[in-house]
Each structure stands twice: as structure tokens, then as C-alpha cells.
């Protein structure tokens, strides 16, 4: 009996060893079949690498492939991993089984895409200290549009200074009214702040207005005694009708009174910028460039030259843009002495100043435009107005010394060259 038991034990031991050997030499495919193991570790009949094959018998039943059910579709390697994976929690799982889209924790993160917007983003404008006067200077190329040739007026404060001396009575006074009737509507349409009007002798006071109330507060940088921020062309006519010509021609004194508060305000704005650590030109929204139109018929009775030279020197000391202040003298009438003096201002002002000064003065005579357009002040084939001004003539009168490109600009299709010695030329010569 013991012999039989011994033989049975040997037999069981032999078959057990054989079974263990066979078990080690085969692998399960998950459906009950076995396949010989290839040297590379993958099944000879399966093209799937070991890392992506079905779970082995040692894994949990819930994760095995089951007979009668389709094999799960493999997730493309370029898709992100699902929020939860049972494989990652199983013992013995390797990083090789993770989807290829997962990146190491230390990998650099790509910058997020910009948000979708319906308009393009314009680069920030350079600070005033980075601007050059050439790029910031108003010219016909960057301020004049085909739809509106007077669009540049919105960039400037337009100031009219009217000669109301005794010599302006009669025809010159009526002609000045015509000038305002032609130019003011264009200015008030484009300048959101309106225009300012000053007279050489008349001062805007409550008494002058026929009332006993207080005068309106004077805006910063502007002189007292004027009509500020006038936006109604009809109001301009009413103001003009209340003034009666009389007295001398104190052009220098009146311009000095207008320059001083403006230059002080400009200097204060520059000082505010420097206190903030900013350098450059003040923002035009804070203090706009000035275009001053002086309408006169004669020679000043005071020292206008000195006033203009001092203002130019002050602007130069500020290193202000060349277009910051422009003075346009518009002659009424045909007085030869007045025309000669205006040419002197245009051509010779500051010639005796060491180092020179900026050119901020431009002059245009009334009858020069008439003759250049072959018209007359009484009618004829030329312009049918007493002015004889074309749109280009008004443009030059308004812009004047501010945009130097307009100098020597002909007014009208038949205008002779500006350097023609046969004509009375009162336009600024090219420097």
C-alpha cells in the first residue's frame, strides 16, 4: 500500500512539475486560448505591443476582455488622457502605458492662444518723448482727406484777432465781416471748442455786453477780454456788429496779452510732466496748438516785432513743436506801407537774433489773392465775392504759419508761380 502511495506521489510530482513548466512557457490571451511567448515578450499572433494588450489574468476581472463583447477601441495617442483611468491605479502599471499626449511635469507650457476678437489691436502710440517732430507734425498728407479738406482744423485752437482801429471804418470793416462770413463757418464746424475772437481795442466785459452780471470764467491758457469758445456763426456776426472801429492799432500789445497766458499754461503742463518723470511735449488734448489769424489793414502803432520775437524765443526754449503756435497776418485793403511791413515780418523777423528763431509768421494780402485769380473786388470774370478767395485761399489763411507746406501754394488754376517777379507776391518765400 505504501508503495502505491509512493508511486502516486512521484506521479503527481512529475505531472505537477510538467504542468508548472507548461504554465510558465505560455501566456493567456484573455479569451482562454494560449499562445507561445515570443522572445520580445509579445504574442506571436498579436500585433499589439505588450503595453497596449488586454489585461492579464492577474488583473482585476472588471478590467479583463470578456468573450462575446467587442474589443474596446484604442484611444488615439494624440488625445489627452481621460479624467480617470483604472490602469493607472493598478499595481505594476508602467509609464509606457500612458497616452503619448501626456507631457512631463517639467515640460514648458505653451503660451495660451489670444482671445478671439472682432477687430485688430493697434500698437500703443509712442510717448511724447519718443515722437519726432517730423512724424508728429501736421501736414497735408496726414491731416487732409479727400472727403474733408479742412479736417485739420480739429487739431488746432483757432483764434481771430480783428483790427478795430479807426482806419478800419468804412469799406475795410465791411470786408472784414465778409472774411469772417467765409472762414468762420468752416472753423466752427471742425473745432469742437469753437473759435476765440479778440479785437485790438474792444474788450469783452459785462459792461460791453450791456449787462451787469459777471463775465464768464476765462478758460485756462486764454486771455481776458475776448469771446471764447464761440461755436455759432450767427453769434460771430452778432458779436462783430456790436463793435465799432476807433482808436489806434496796438497789435503788439494785444498779441502779447494773448501769448502770455498760453505760454505760461504750456510751461505749467511741461512742469507737471517732468514732476511725474515724463519728458516731451504736453498732450495736445491738454493744450492744443494755436492758429492765430490777425486781420488788419495797416502798420501797428506799437512794437509788434519784439512781441513776436520774444514769443518765438520762449517756444524755442520749451523745444515746442514747430507747429505749436502759428500767426497768420491777413491784410485788408491795398495800402502799400502795410503790405511792405507784413513782408518784413514774413521775411526778416528774427534775422538779427543770434542763432535765429523759429519761423511762425505767415502773411497773405487780400488783393494778392484777387490779382492771382484774375478777379476784382468789384466783380468781373473772377470770383464773384468781394474777397476773391477760393477754397485754397481760405485754407491757407486758416492754417497759415502752422503747416509750412502750404507756403507758396497757388490759389486757383490760373495762379502764376509764387516766384514770378511780375506779380505782387506776399506769400512766404521757401526757406
Automatic annotation (TrEMBL):
Residues 1-141, 407-431 are annotated as: Disordered. Residues 55-65, 127-136 have a biased composition (Polar residues). SMART domains: VWA (SM00327). It comes from the Eukaryota. Residues 27-46, 93-110 have a biased composition (Low complexity). PROSITE patterns: VWFA. Transmembrane segments: none annotated. Residues 157-346 form the VWFA domain. PANTHER family: SLR1338 PROTEIN (PTHR34706), VWFA DOMAIN-CONTAINING PROTEIN (PTHR34706:SF1). This is VWFA domain-containing protein. It comes from Sporothrix schenckii (strain ATCC 58251 / de Perez 2211183).
